[in-house]
Amino acid sequence: MPLTREQREEFLAGTHPACLAVDARDGRGPLNVPIWYAYRPGGRFSAVTAGDSRKARLLAAAGRATFLVQRVEPTYRYVSAEGPVTLRTATAEDLTAVASRYLAPDVVAAYVENSLRRFGPDGMALVELLPEHWLSADIGAS
């Protein structure tokens, strides 16, 4: 059964596994990888990745992608959003916003510091997806 907008927004506010899919444009299937995300209700998905990664290069070339967020325990529930993506240099605040959804509060600052040290101040990219097309379901809901 498809989710209502309210159910979708509530679900996306939770911390769930997500996958990002983007056209590989190289004769292979789409790149489909797990990713941490943040979502602003009624707004955009955001994620952070290494700026020189294959994922970032493919996103920049394709200009579109799909986020799939799912819950695998009963009842199985998912939300898929497809739309245009933009990329820009990620800030410490961007990294914090995404990482704080997945990591314990006492390790977020260290994670952000280590990421910026590893990739450099301009080495991380913020990916933002503006949903244009939605699919959702709660399989097993009555």
Q: Characterize the biggest β-sheet.
A: 8 strands, antiparallel
Give the termini separation: 8 Å
Compute the number of strand runs: 8
Count of DSSP-assigned helices: 4
Structural class: alpha+beta
Proportion of strand residues: 35-45%
Q: Based on Cα principal axes, name the global outline.
A: globular
Q: Uncertain regions: pLDDT < 50 for 5+ in a row?
A: none
Mean pLDDT: 94
Describe the structure.
- It is built from four helices and eight strands, in the order H-E-E-E-E-H-E-E-H-H-E-E.
- It is globular.
- Strand 3 (38-39) and strand 4 (45-50) form a beta hairpin.
- The termini are close together.
- Helices cover 29% and strands 37% of the residues.
- Helix 3 crosses helix 4 (105-119).
- The longest helix has 15 residues, at 105-119.
- It is an alpha+beta fold and 142 residues long.
- The model has no long low-confidence stretch (mean pLDDT 94).
- Strands 1, 2, 3, 4, 5, 6, 7 and 8 form an eight-stranded antiparallel beta sheet that branches.
How would you summarize the topology of this molecule?
Layout: H1 5-13, E1 18-22, E2 31-34, E3 38-39, E4 45-50, H2 54-62, E5 64-71, E6 76-89, H3 92-99, H4 105-119, E7 124-129, E8 133-139
Antiparallel strand pairs: 1-2, 1-5, 3-4, 4-7, 5-6, 6-7, 6-8
Helix pairs in contact: 3-4
Short summary:
It contains 4 helices and 8 strands. By secondary structure, the protein is of the alpha+beta class.
Provide tags for this entry.
142 residues; 29% helix
